[in-house]
Specification:
heterodimer, A: 164 residues, mainly alpha, 3 domains, B: mainly alpha, 8 helices
Chain lengths: 164, 199
């Protein structure tokens, strides 16, 4: 039990360390770039890693035919039990086309949505009293100044100034 | 008496398909919710549409016959691991076949062009040829140790988050990060070595 707890803690610390380091040292930092440019070993390593990344990107960017999901579903359903093959869901799956993820589909509305949320937040702040407390602050300070005038030039004069 | 027997028989006939439908419907639900991601991952691993369909079929057939027709606890984890293993086996088989044919000298010039990841594909144009790079990477991924390969496949080809990978493989997300880093280092070394051998 203790070992499991320790392992969990170790895992959390590792994640935290990784995040702390990666937030402080970025790949485009000057000293890092300078070192890579001058160190042949690191230079070689970065080129090799870049080659792998390039190949991975090439793999990801290669498109397949639009009906691949449909064909794969049809083939897979074809070997399932007869009762499953005839289910309404199976018919739907046989004609299923790939759809972009929800995040991709609604991503273009992210900026206007953020603006709208900011406006709403300002309205809410106004409503719940940021501005009303500013009014309160103004009234209090006016009172203090009136008191100051009353003590130095007299109550009548102060009343005259602040009622005008 | 016989009338009763007939009616029982009819009830029995109707009852079986319904119960089968109910009990195995989750296979279709799994296909609906994870099918698209799975096809994308398989396409990236295999790069051949017919192979993708075969691996996909194999995965769901295994799922439908899971341990005496039970249901796996984590369906997504089971599907992704099973599909990835099937695809890697196919990739290895394909590479072995290619090696065998090339050692026998059976590959014609045309087939050599269709299979760019062969030892004598040494034209300078290949260096920037993305198809060549993809095939080289696929071969190297198939050679990785299982724990590293699983992470690379799920992270880079299925584009899952480290947290999801951790859940699927039963490891922490920090371990998944470490494994991926090691895998990329290994892949870089192997691809570099292969490139130098070609020279």
């Amino acid at each position: 039990m203790k070992t499991i707890k320790a392992n969990k803690k170790c895992g959390h610390i590792r994640t935290w360390l990784y995040e702390a380091i990666s937030s402080r040292i970025r790949f485009d930092t000057d000293w890092l770039q300078h070192h890579i440019a001058n160190c042949p070993r690191c230079h070689r390593r970065v080129i090799s890693a870049g080659r792998v990344n390039l190949a991975l990107m090439a793999l990801k960017s290669q498109p397949h035919k639009l009906d691949l999901l449909m064909r794969a579903n049809t083939q897979a359903i074809g070997v399932l039990k007869h009762s499953l093959r005839r289910a309404p869901k199976a018919c739907k799956l046989k004609s299923m086309l790939p759809e972009p993820k929800l995040l991709t589909r609604w991503g273009k509305y992210a900026h206007p949505a953020a603006n709208a949320v900011a406006c709403l937040a300002i309205l809410l702040l106004m409503k719940i009293g940021v501005f009303s407390s500013m009014d309160k602050f103004q009234r209090q300070s006016q009172k203090v100044v009136k008191q100051y005038y009353a003590s130095h030039v007299g109550q009548e004069m102060a009343d005259e100034i602040f009622t005008a | 008496m016989s009338g009763k027997a007939i009616s029982y028989g009819q009830i029995w006939d109707i009852a079986i398909p319904k119960t089968v439908d109910e009990s195995r419907r989750w296979v279709l639900s799994a296909m609906q919710s994870h099918g698209q991601e799975l096809v994308t991952m398989l396409w990236r691993i295999l790069g051949n549409e017919q192979d993708v369909c075969d691996a996909y079929q194999n995965t769901f057939l295994r799922l439908a016959h899971y341990e005496g027709r039970g249901k796996p606890e984590h369906i997504k984890a089971y599907i992704f691991r099973s599909a990835s293993n099937t695809a890697i086996s196919m990739l290895r088989r394909r590479a072995a076949e290619r090696r065998r044919l090339s050692s026998l000298g059976v590959l014609t010039d045309q087939r050599r062009r269709a299979a760019p990841y062969s030892r004598d594909a040494s034209s300078p144009a290949n260096e920037i040829d993305s198809k060549y790079l993809q095939d080289a990477l696929r071969c190297c991924i198939a050679q990785l140790p299982e724990h590293l390969r699983n992470v690379v496949t799920l992270r880079d080809l299925a584009e899952l988050s480290y947290a999801q990978i951790g859940r699927i493989l039963g490891i922490s997300s920090a371990t998944a990060r470490v494994y991926r880093c090691k895998a990329i280092q290994l892949l870089a070394v192997w691809m570099n070595k292969e490139k130098e051998e070609r020279k």
